[in-house]
Design a protein that fits this description.
The protein is about 55% helix and about 15% strand. The chain has four helices and nine strands. The relative contact order is 0.15. The longest helix is centred in the last third of the chain and has 80 residues. The strands form two sheets. Strands 6-5-4-3-9-8-7 form a seven-stranded antiparallel β-sheet. Strands 1-2 form a two-stranded antiparallel sheet. It is of the alpha+beta class.
Length: about 375
């Protein structure tokens, strides 16, 4: 091995042959181990340099992959919510179908069941969670679907998923700018602004306390609150503003006691189904695109990690091979050097000194 110390018998005078040979072998092996360690570090540095680019790719693409997976989960949740909501709407339609009704139908019970299902539907869609793709940021004058932003590229590029508000709500707007908003299935509250600007107190719209003075034509509504009291209050030509799915409470469908009222409810429910189907298709389309992005990101991570594993495996094999070969060479060199002690000249030098050995050789 290059750089091993040259054999010099002068440094070993006075030592026994065995100990001198052992010392020389140890010297060779110690020097060889130092060289092996240095070379290992050089080789390891080369492997680290080779893996550095791959590790950088992992660091760039891993956050992208995680971000995309996060939005995939939210899109899947929204799609599942729509499926559940469609089942609820189907139940509501079935409650109003001719097969479920008869001349002895308890309309108060039908209305109660209808409003209970509407509450279920509302809770499925309405949410203050700004990551809900079928909910709204908040119950406000404008019901805008949430938009989710996520990292879609290693350079920090972002993409968005657009949601659509599929809760169900409505306002009854008066000509003076105030409006009623439901506070339950059988109560409404008048506001100048929501939610702080209340006008008066919550009012009952139970069947015994409210009446529709004329069937509204999808926008105009006239109704009286406190119909059986000494001081009823009538509201004429108000405007019904629907939000999201736009399914109303039963009292706005004549308490479901008339065929016309039930048909209006069924029409609204079918419109709601159309809206849900549109958003489901929209989410499915976006999900297909997101899946492609997810595959690109995950493939980049997997490729880089695979390259790192490949270099690590090769490095381990090559380092082990080098160390084994270098150790064998060092041991062979040390053994060859130590065998020089059997040379007659060396023996004379060791036993008689330089002058005595010279006379013996000349005789």
């Amino acid at each position: 091995m290059t750089g091993l110390p040259a054999f010099d018998p002068n440094v070993l005078f006075g030592a026994t042959p065995r100990n001198a040979a052992d010392d020389l072998i140890k010297s060779y092996l110690k020097h060889a181990q130092t060289q092996i360690t240095k070379q290992q570090k050089v080789m390891a540095s080369g492997y680290e340099s080779e893996m550095a680019g791959y590790r950088e790719d992992v660091l760039k693409w891993m956050p992208v992959s995680e971000s995309i997976k996060g939005v995939q989960t939210k899109v899947n949740t929204a799609a599942s919510t729509i499926i559940s909501m469609e089942k609820t709407v189907t139940q509501m339609i079935n409650k109003l179908s001719a097969g479920d009704l008869s001349s002895t139908t308890d309309w108060a019970e039908v209305a109660l069941q209808f409003d209970t299902l509407r509450t279920t539907l509302s809770s499925q869609g309405n949410s203050n969670n700004n990551e809900n793709l079928v909910g709204s940021v908040r119950r406000a004058d404008t019901y805008t679907g949430n938009t989710l932003s996520y990292v879609s590229g290693p350079s920090g590029a972002r993409s968005t998923v657009q949601g659509s508000y599929l809760g169900t709500d409505y306002d009854i707007r008066l000509s003076d700018g105030t409006f009623f908003r439901s506070t339950g299935a059988q109560s409404i509250q008048r506001y100048e602004a929501y939610p702080q600007g209340k006008v008066g107190y919550s009012q009952s719209v139970s069947a015994s306390n409210v009446s529709l003075d004329a069937t509204y034509d999808a926008s105009n509504l006239s109704f009286t609150i406190g119909k059986n009291t000494a001081a009823p209050t009538s509201y004429a030509s108000t405007t019904v503003e629907k939000h999201g799915l736009g399914i109303l409470h039963s009292w706005l469908y004549d308490g479901l006691t008339t065929a016309e009222g039930r048909q209006r409810a069924i029409d609204d429910l079918k419109t709601a189904q159309d809206k849900m189907n549109i958003q489901y298709i929209n989410l499915s389309t976006q999900q297909t695109f997101i899946q492609l992005q997810a595959k690109t990101a995950q493939d980049a991570v997997d490729t880089a990690q695979g390259k790192i594993a490949e270099v690590q495996s090769r490095a381990q094999t090559e380092l082990q091979t080098y160390v084994a070969r270098a150790q064998q060479e060092a041991q062979a060199n040390a053994a060859n050097a130590a065998s020089g002690y059997n040379n007659p000249v060396v023996q004379l030098l060791r036993t008689k000194g330089k002058i005595g050995a010279l006379f013996d050789l000349m005789s």
